[in-house]
Each structure stands twice: as C-alpha cells, then as structure tokens.
C-alpha cells in the first residue's frame, strides 16, 4: 500500500516538473531579451555620447574659426555659411554621420551683440534598444555653441629698427613682421573686407617718409626723404605739422641722409601686398634715433594727421568706441642720436675764399648710450603721450641684456609688463611677433 502511494507521488511530481518547465522557459526567454536590451542600451547611449562629444568639439572649433575671420574681415551670410561648413567638415574627424551633421548645420549672427550661434544635430541608429520594439530606432543628438567676434576695427603701427646693427638680422625681422601680417590680415583678405589696417614705420637716423617728406620738412628733406624730429611746444604731442612756411621750427627736420633708401614709411593700409612688399624691402643703415620711429608710428595712428595721409590711410578718432589702436615697437640697441634746430657754424668755399657764418638749422647730435640720454628721454616721453591717448603699446627688445639702455626704454614704453618682450635669439624674435599678433586678436575678440 505504501509502495503504491510512493509511486503515485513520484508520478505527480514528474508531471508538475513538466508543466513548470513549460511555463518557465518563455519567461526566461523574455527576461533574456530584456537583459539584452538593458545591457545594449549602455552601448547605444555610449555611442551617442561619443558622437555628441566629437560633434561638439568640431562645432566649437568651426565657430571659433569663423569668429576669428569675422573679427578681421567683413563677410556675407553666404560666406559665413560656406566657411563654417568647411571648418566643421574638416574637424568632424570621420565620425561616420558627417553628411547628416553638415546638412543640419545652422548659424545665427547677432551683429548688435557681436555673437555667432551655431548648431547641428544627427539621428544615430540604435543596435540594441529597438529590439522587440522596446526602444527607439534612433537616438537624436544635438549640439550648439555661441562665440563672440569682434565688432571693432583695428589700427596698428609696426615700428621697426633698421639701423646698421640689424644688418645681419634682416631676414629674421622680415619673417617676424610678415608673420604678424599673416595672422592679422590672412591671405585672401581683400582690402575692402579687412577690419584691420597696419602701418610700417622703419627707422634708423630718421624715417624715410618718401612722398610725404616734402610737406612736413618744408622742403628740407635731404636726398633720402629722411625725416627726423620736431622741436618746440609740439615736440611730445601729435599736433599736426604747421603749414606756416615763415616758421621753419614748426616743421620737421631733414638734417640727415642716414635713412635706408628703401622702403619708405607705409601709412595705414589693409592691402597685404603693400605691407609685405614694404617688409620684404627692409634694409639696414644708419644709427639709432628710435624716438623718430616712435613719433611717426604715433602719427600714423593719430586722427590729427588725416590731412597728410591718403584717404584710405586716415586714422579714426581716439573717441571712436569701435576702433582699437595698437603700436608695436622693436629695437635691437640703444638710442644714441637726436636732432636739434639751433645755431651752428656753416662754411662755404675753399681756401682764401672760404667764408663761415652762424646760421640756424637742423643739426645731428650723437651721444653715449644710456636710458636717460636725450634720445631715450624723448622716446619715453613720446611713448607716454601716445599711451595717454589710448594707444596700447607692445615693445620688443632684440637682445639678451635686460639691463641695457634699449631694454629699459622698451620696458618703459610698453603699456604693461605683459606687453614687453625680450627676444634673445632669431627664433625668439619671430615668436614675439607671433605672440603679439595673437594677443591683439584675443583683445579684439574679448571686447
């Protein structure tokens, strides 16, 4: 009896196991799909996040590229769109969905605020979460960024030492100056579209003013159009030169033929070819009257000198809130030459017929090299007056002696410690010009 009961119990247990197995297996299959979808979701979303990061980085880089272009030149909306597309494409890094991202690229310009807003989006196909109709077939990924561009125009005077001591370094100086022009007025920028104008002021014993020398010296321009200094109350100002021909002292001195024959000073221009041509013609000659270069750099930025320069080179007003003015002054030595309008002995003829008399005119003076000598003192006074008018001054001393007179004058002329550079090698000189160009960019982008 007990054996029959046991057999019946075993039979019932087996039947229950069969029935339970039949109901559990579908449940296990369902749970396996759910676990696959949940586990795969991490993969799908990880892919989406990775692609979003790539897109965001590409979009930021493209927007900054366009902001830099907008800061240096005027662009149409179509040009902005095309350049933005090109920059975005170049930075997408073969994401795999670049066509969709580029197609969905959009931008908005706020010219009043000086901002550009850029966005894009893509739909990324899922591999796991759509299985069984549980999740979506795609994950939408969108990115956007907004960057500022400069609404300002820039006027920059490039004051370059071309004295005899620079004769072995002219190739480096040309490379350095050209690199600054390349950064601020990139290749392909037309004169009409550029928001940046640069003047080139090479100096030695004076500044070769070329076609402008006749007017400011009242005809006493020498054989090389070498313009030196002015005297009197206007000496440390940017007052315009006096057209009164009866007052010779109100004009600038000739007094020297020590300027290099080429190039002449180039007033403000946005023409790259003019600037690069002038730079590539730089040649070394003469002693160092750095104060004359500083003065003419200032005059190229001064609204008081619009009557001398061509219309397209006329500087803007100091009070114009949409104009930023900069001067970059470079020297490799100590200032040691100056000019006075004074009485001096002048002799004519030979032998018994030689006659001498005291006349008033421009005379060249040489002096020992010191940061407190006359030429250095005049240079510092001009720098101070220029800074008072709101010109931001960057200076470069091309040498290794930080205690030299030249280095001290450049430190004094700089707007601040961060705008003074010591360049002790050729590479350092090129780097200094490059860093200044980038700082100027950063200033007008930030304002």
TrEMBL record:
Q: Where is the VWFA domain?
A: 155-436
Q: Which InterPro entries match?
A: Tad_N, VWF_A, vWFA_dom_sf
Spell out where the chain crosses the membrane.
Answer: 21-43
| The keyword Phosphoprotein belongs to this UniProt entry's keyword annotation | no
Highest taxon listed in the record's lineage: Bacteria
Q: Which UniProt keywords apply?
A: Membrane, Transmembrane, Transmembrane helix
Q: Pfam families in the record, alphabetically?
A: Tad (PF13400)
Decide whether keyword Metal-binding is in the record: no
The protein depicted here goes by the name Pilus assembly protein TadG
